[in-house]
Amino acid sequence: MATTMQPPDIAATPDLTAGGAIALELRALSLWYGPRQALDAVSFGVPARKITALIGPSASGKSSLLRCLNRLNDELPECRFEGEVRVGGANLYAKDVIVHEIRRRIGMVFQKPNPFPLSVYENVAYGLRLSGMKARRELDASVEAALKAARLWDEVSARLDDSALVLSLGQQQRLVIARALAVGPEILLMDEPASALDPAATLRFEELLHAPAQRYTVLLVTHTMQQAARGADYTAFLHQGRLVEFGDTDVLLTNPRERLTEDYITGRYA
Amino acid sequence: MDPLHLSQHISRQFNSEIEDVRRQVLAMGGLVEEQIAAALGMLLDRDAARGTEIREREREVNAAELAIDERCAYILARRQPAASDLRLVLAVVKMLADLERIGDEAKRIAKLAERLVGEEGGTDVTASLAELGTLARGQLRGALDAFARLDENLALDLMRRDRQLDEVYTALFSVLVERMQHAPAQIPVELDRLWCARSFERIGDRCKNLCEYVLYLVRGKDVRHSGLAKTDAREE
């Protein structure tokens, strides 16, 4: 199946957070970039309103998998895809799916904070305006709520009109989260979101993950085992494009089922 | 022998830290075993002089406990171990406490043996105490072997063998109670013998704990309080 994705009807699917325990279901997901296969029949369910970490060595397919879930691979030439991704029962790659609507419902946070070159306020208000919100009072309230949810409000409330680019990296990353949260996503995909942050900013960021996790489903790619250990309810281990093991983080980190997982998490992987 | 691949980390430094901890635990176990052997010798040979040896060993055992505990804390803080490495550190920390207590029991037996040096009679009791002590010492040696080789079958076997120690203890207990009933004036002496027997029996129990930690380390499952039958019927 080629990735010629078009309009979705995913907005019409039931509320993901109200339904069953699985927010995103991957069924035999395979992905190729030209001749190179990046994912090989990956199947698992991402539990709703929980934090799931994706771990694995470089080139194991973690970021490719995340990009599939936000349909970011659509624009890549020579990208080929097989299998299914189901969100709240609907196929993410169905022909009638509207991609920008998917991206509203499934937000993405990247490794490096990427605030727009706008004010702090406008960064958060941007998506809200796109989705049709115009009344200043409503915008003000939503921006404040999103910044509070991202634990940034106390630090920026007095300088909402300052450029977002003068914020620290940690603040920028939380601003990007506020921007994603403002439009009310059900799922947040995060690609090594704390890798550019210092330890204190990382902890602040992880603290923030826990609060939204009760309302949002988070799927987090991380290189640091400790981040998965500290923050994730579930962990999936990918190796060479295949899912080796998926399970409760506590079990996976103390008594993994697979030798490959054990070798990776204990630093025996070469 | 390394069924858990404990020495195959990418970091050689980590390999040597893990290996050091295992070696130190075995060395500490060896000291404790010497304490038991000396205490047993005091009982059998009526040789009070070996009490000094046991007290010296105790200082070494205590120092080893502190040193290994500290190493484990460093490994937890610096390496943040996972899976079998984490289980090893947790198992070692628990083993230290049991080993140290086994040493305490040996010291207790030595003190009682000092008091019993001049007492006559009770050859059959001494023979039973010798049997108990030999069994207890064998259990400790076996538990240390099981840890060294990460041998779950040996650990299970030793846990079963603890019943034998319990049986000898129970039989000896009855004999001693009977002797106290027949010669009340000898009650203090018989009580000392009973406390010796009790200490050997407790050493057996602590060795069983050591075996449980070995099983936890190898299998990744905590078998404490689960009963030997369930432990035997390994879940897959």
What does this structure look like?
- The complex is a heterodimer of chains A (270) and B (236).
- Chain A has helices spanning 62-69, 99-105, 120-130, 136-149, 153-156, 169-182, 199-213, 225-231, 249-254, 259-265; strands at 22-33, 36-47, 51-55, 79-87, 90-91, 106-109, 187-191, 217-221, 234-239, 242-248.
- Chain A starts with 21 loop residues before the first strand and ends in a 5-residue tail after the last helix.
- Chain A is an alpha/beta fold.
- In chain A, the strands form two sheets. Chain A has a six-stranded mixed sheet with strand order 6-7-8-3-9-10, sandwiched between helices. Chain A has a four-stranded antiparallel sheet with strand order 2-1-4-5, covered by helices on one side.
- Chain A is built from ten helices and ten strands.
- By secondary structure, chain B is mainly α.
- Chain B has a single domain, classed as Up-down Bundle (Methane Monooxygenase Hydroxylase, Chain G, domain 1), CATH 1.20.58.
- Chain B contains seven helices and no strands.
- The radius of gyration of chain B is 19 Å and the shape is elongated.
- The chains are: A alpha/beta (270), B mainly alpha (236).
- The interface between A and B is medium-sized, with 16 and 16 residues.
Write a concise synopsis of the structure shown:
The complex is a heterodimer of chains A (270) and B (236). By secondary structure, chain A is α/β, with parallel strands linked by helices. Chain A has helices at 62-69, 99-105, 120-130, 136-149, 153-156, 169-182, 199-213, 225-231, 249-254, 259-265, and strands spanning 22-33, 36-47, 51-55, 79-87, 90-91, 106-109, 187-191, 217-221, 234-239, 242-248.
Q: Helix and strand layout, with pairings?
A:
The complex is a heterodimer of chains A (270) and B (236).
Chain A: E1 22-33, E2 36-47, E3 51-55, H1 62-69, E4 79-87, E5 90-91, H2 99-105, E6 106-109, H3 120-130, H4 136-149, H5 153-156, H6 169-182, E7 187-191, H7 199-213, E8 217-221, H8 225-231, E9 234-239, E10 242-248, H9 249-254, H10 259-265
Parallel strand pairs in A: 3-8, 3-9, 6-7, 7-8
Antiparallel strand pairs in A: 1-2, 1-4, 4-5, 9-10
Helix pairs in contact in A: 3-4, 3-6, 4-6, 6-7
Chain B: H1 12-45, H2 50-79, H3 83-116, H4 123-149, H5 152-182, H6 187-219, H7 228-232
